[in-house]
Each structure stands twice: as C-alpha cells, then as structure tokens.
Design goal:
alpha+beta, about 270 residues, Phytanoyl-CoA dioxygenase, about 30% helix
C-alpha cells in the first residue's frame, strides 16, 4: 500500500524530512526568543523555571519558517494530496504551542476536529467556527515538528481512520456545516473505538492530516520542551466531493459509501 492509499484509509501521512533539521533548529531559536519575551523568568537551560505546561506563541514569518513552509519535498506531498494549483502556499506557520514537561494538564487535550470557516465574518470565537462536508477553507491540517518528539514528549494523538465517520456526521448539514464544538463532541464519541497513533518524529518531519481527522493534545511527560506548529492548508477553490479526484476528496466520497459498522462507530 502506497502513502496515498494510506492517507485515504488512515487520514494522515508523515513526510519524513520535509524540511531540514538545520531549518528546524533556526525555528526553535526564534521560538525560544519569543518564549523568553512572554515569560522572562523562563530559562531554556533550567527546567526548574518551566512552571507552565504550555506557552502559546503567535504567528512567525521569519525566513526559517518560510523555508519550512515552502520546502520542495513538502510542496510535492501537498500537491499529491490536494492537487497542484489547488491550494495556497503559506509563508508563515500560524501559532505554536510550546509544551513543557509538567504534572499538570494544560486543559486543552480534548478530542476534536479543527474548525474550517466562520459563518459570521465578525465571529472570532474559534469554537464557533464551522466545518462542512466540502471542508470549506481547509484542505489539510499540518503538524510541523521543530523538535524531536518521542512518545513522552506530548505528541499529538491521532485516531486512525476517524476522518471517515466524521464525513458521515457532516453529510446531513449541507453547505452551512456544523459548529466545531458540537461536531467534535459527537466525533469523539463516534470514533472512540478506533486505534490511536502518536505524531512522533524528528525535527523537520511534517504530518499531513485530512481536515476531518479527530486528534488531541496530551500532557508532556518527557524531559525536553516540544516545539510544534499546526497550521492548515487553505484551498484555492472549493472541493468537489461528488466528482473530485484528489485523495482528500476521494476519502470523503468513500466514507459516505461505507457502512458504519466497518468504521468502529458505536451504535
């Protein structure tokens, strides 16, 4: 089975070495500087000062982030999943939650599906963003690893194949879709029996995830901070769920044709 088939079946694929480890190191340097601006008492060399489970950083568009976002290997992989010319290149990678070893949960570890678009242009509450079957305004979710992420380093949890039940949950809602929060609650229940894998890897790896994939953060139980960005890929036009040939579209169409008992959904 090739990586395209795995993406359609499982809802994600890891692009190993999507950008260079040297670029990842440069990104970490910038992010550490931002962390220190936000929390001056935090010392990168002194774990005793890492008192918060997560520090959330804003968007960064410096050169190393542009290099990571536009790397040829990553561009080729996105083209394969979304289609050449069917997505908008990024020059920055959005917000970055930096997770630190902690006995406390950051309170953001619930299973969810990412929101895609705002029904109201004035609505900034992300939990009220919406998702529809055509995945308006979101072609993929990406996980950029800027640091080494092992099993204990707060890797994002991914429910394998969960994008397929979510597609069926969205089918009745039409173009207007459903709000992220109620959809995520239903998706978490509908996919509870599916296997879970961890988004581990080396600096420079990128996970490309179907926009409907159910995923969750978790508490950091390791010994080194974890640096990871999680931007979306913006499509250049609407998806065609009925006739589209990209793996993202094919996965949705196949999911709608499946019988629920084949996906691990609870009855």
């Amino acid at each position: 089975m090739d990586e395209i088939e795995m993406f359609v079946r499982d809802g994600f694929v890891r692009v190993a070495g999507a950008f260079g480890e040297d670029v990842a190191a440069d990104c970490r340097t910038v992010l550490w500087e931002d962390v220190r601006r936000q929390v001056p008492s935090l010392d990168p060399e002194d774990p005793a000062t890492w008192t918060e489970p997560v520090v959330r950083l804003g968007d960064h568009g410096e050169e190393p982030f542009r290099l990571a976002a536009g790397s040829p290997r990553l561009t080729e992989a996105i083209d394969a999943l979304v289609g050449p010319g069917r997505w908008r290149p990024r020059e920055s990678l959005g917000s970055t939650p930096v997770r630190f070893p902690s006995e406390r949960s950051a309170g953001d570890d619930g299973w969810h599906v990412e929101g895609s678009f705002r029904a109201d242009a004035g609505e900034f509450d992300y939990f009220r963003w919406r998702v529809n079957l055509a995945s308006k305004d979101r072609a993929l979710l990406m996980l950029f690893l800027f640091s080494e992420v092992g099993d204990d380093d707060a890797p994002t949890r991914l429910r394998v194949g969960s994008h397929r039940p979510v597609a069926r949950l969205l089918a009745p809602y039409g173009e207007g879709g459903e709000e992220m929060l109620p959809l995520s609650l239903r998706a978490a229940e509908a996919t509870a029996d599916l296997p879970v894998t961890l988004a581990t890897g080396r600096p420079g790896d990128v996970y490309l995830c179907h926009p409907f994939l159910v995923h969750a953060a978790q508490r950091h139980q390791g010994s080194r901070p974890r640096f990871m960005a999680q931007p979306g890929v913006l499509p250049s036009g609407p998806f065609d769920v009925e006739n589209g040939t990209s793996p993202v579209e094919v996965a949705i169409r196949e999911a709608l044709a499946e019988k629920p008992e084949r996906t691990g959904q609870r009855k």
